[in-house]
Amino acid sequence: MSVDFQAVQWNRAKLIYDGILIAAVALFVSGFAAIHWQLHPPNSTPDAIDIWIRAFGTCAFVMLTIVLAIGPLARIDRRFLPLLYNRRHFGVLTFLVAAVHAWLMIQWYLAEGSLANLPAELTNFADYGKFIGFPFKLLGIAALLVLFLMAATSHDFWLAFLTPPVWKALHMMLYLAYGLVVMHVALGIMQGERTLLIPLMLVAGFGTVAGLHLFASLRERKTDRGQPLTADGWIAVGAPHDIPDRSARIVAAPGGERIAVFRDGAEIGALSNLCAHQNGPLGEGRIVDGCVTCPWHGYQYRLADGCAPPPFTEKLVTYRVRVNRGMVEVDPHPLPPGTHASIRYSRGSRGAA
Amino acid sequence: MTRSHRTVHRLLWPALAIVVALGFTLALALRPPPEPPPAAGDSKS
Questions:
Q1: What is the pLDDT of residues A106-129, one digit of tens each?
Q2: Looking at residue A315, what DSSP letter applies?
Q3: Staple partner for A75: which of A216, A279, A303, A335, CB 3.0–4.6 Å?
Q4: Model-level pTM?
Q5: Residue A349: which pLDDT band, with cuts at 50, 70 and 90?
Q6: Which of A190, A191, A224 lies closest to B3 in CB terms?
Q7: To the nearest whole angstrom, how far is the Cα of B18 from the nearest Cα of chain A?
Q8: What are the angstrom distances between the C-alpha of A28 and each of A39, A56, A189, A337?
């Protein structure tokens, strides 16, 4: 949506978000290390490094859990949408914290004078046949590589270059990374430490994320099944005033993509539910300053024709709408992006404008 | 999200949850027993 290229488009909201994020990470890591230091004072340099390894590793796990919970939470409850606004910075910071965890691991080997043991551990192929004793560090390295790929392609340049559907599919690898991290911890530190905290952290974290994703997707299943069609193949949406003013009702034809049917006073229009930016759910947004506004990052489109207001150039597909016997109906066949398709209705109107 | 992404979500999360839950349970159940505490005489050395 930008006119001039900027590497990162900072604004006040993003700066506040990032400031809180960095402060929380610093507080978590230093607090974790301080408590551990008190409970188990280190006797050597490797022991001290080990505390920082645990602090950054735990922080990365917690951050990854939160990052993965934000998406379904925002789909379940709109109050979580502000967390989604700058989620990419959260993800990049998660990669950096995980990278520090890995770097400290190498420092630990150096302090022990046994750096050669690391490649030896990873190339002892007999261990790959074991379950307990599996080279768990490899799982962590694989997860770190996925996080790196996510961070490296997080910029809007890659989003535009790869297209939103491909970019989104690529970024779903993060789910796999989370599974790898859980097993990295379960086959690593959990094998040597008898504390209940580690299994509890894994169960609570993974259980929450998996539960939220399953709940959110099952709840949306009904919409995806689609609405029944009228005799002439249109989708019945409801009475005009069933659509909240300056908001939308989301409908879908069986097997089709979702359509956001907005009402702005007496104007009714239907657009693709997919924002051109990141395929965000436009129908969960509102009309702000006369434009349909995506709830994820604020991209805007005119209700009448699905075009972003000048000087921006994004266009969405639109759909024909009509008021038939007091009911709003939408034609599930999309019109070319940018086609004018909204109508104005008045009480008692019986047909499309 | 597109319809196909939501379908992938609906298939992927149950599968991932089952695999991870199984792996985690095995990792917990097969943990080696804790090392015995050092004998009293050892602590003097």
A1: 999 999 999 999 999 999 999 999
A2: B
A3: A216
A4: 0.84
A5: low
A6: A224
A7: 10
A8: 17, 9, 19, 47
**Joined tokens for residue A24:** 């929380």
Q: Is B35's Cβ below 8 Å from some Cβ in A?
A: no
Pairing verdict, β A235-238 and A327-330: antiparallel
Question: How many C-beta neighbours within 10 Å does residue B9 have?
Answer: 20
With a threshold of 0.90, tell me whether the complex ipTM lies above it.
no
For chain A, what's the residue count? Answer: 353
Q: How far apart are CA A140 and CA A238, in angstroms?
A: 51
Strand partners, A270: A261, A319
pLDDT in tens, A10-58: 788 888 989 999 999 999 999 999 999 999 999 999 999 999 999 999 9
Q: Which of B5, B37, B31 is nearest to A224 (CA)?
A: B5
Structure tokens given for A260:
């956001």
Q: Using CA atoms, how far apart are residues A136 and A176, in angstroms rounded to an integer?
A: 15
Calpha distance A343→A303 (Å, rounded): 10
* DSSP-based three-state secondary structure for A291: strand
Interface test with A, best of B24, B25, B28 (most A CBs within 10 A): B24
pLDDT in tens, B26-45: 999 999 887 777 765 554 43
Q: Is the pLDDT of residue A144 over 80?
A: yes
Tokens, residue A4: 């001039």
A222 close to B (CB below 8 A):
no
DSSP state of A242: G
Q: Quick check: A312 and A302 in contact, CB under 8 A?
A: no
Tokens 């104005």 correspond to A344
Least confident span in A173-177, A256-260, A295-299: A295-299
Count of alpha carbons within 13 Å of A290, Cβ hemisphere only?
A: 6
State the DSSP string of A84-146. Answer: HHTHHHHHHHHHHHHHHHHHHHHHHHHHHT-TTHHHHHHT-GGGGG-STT--HHHHHHHHHHH
In tens, the pLDDT along A69-111 reads 998 998 888 888 888 878 889 999 999 999 999 999 999 999 9
Q: Contact at 8 Å (CB) between A154 and A92? A: yes
Q: Is A250 on the interface with B (CB under 8 A)?
A: no
Does B8 touch chain A if contact means CB atoms closer than 8 Å? yes
Q: Which pLDDT does position B43 carry in this prediction?
A: 47
